[in-house]
Amino acid sequence: MFYQFKYFPPFMPKKKKLYIVRKEFDGYGGAENVAKRYLTGFESFFNASLIYAGSQFEGHTFSGRHGPGWFRSLSFASSVNKFLSSRSDELVFSMTRGIPGTIFRMGDGVHKCWLRRKKAGLLKRVSNPNHLITPILERSSIQKSKYIVPNSSLIFKELERFYPEHKHKCKVIHNGYNQAVFKFASSSQRELQKAEHKLSNNCLNLLFCANGWERKGLTHALKLLSKLANITPSHLWVAGRGDQHIYSQTIEKLDLPNQVTFLGTVADTRPWYQMTDLFILPTLYDPFSNSCLEALACGCPVLTTQSNGASECLNETNGLAVKSPRYVLHDSVIEWSKNVKNLDRKIISDSVKSLTSGNEINSYLNLLQSCGQ
Question: Does 55 fall in a domain?
Answer without folding.
Answer: yes
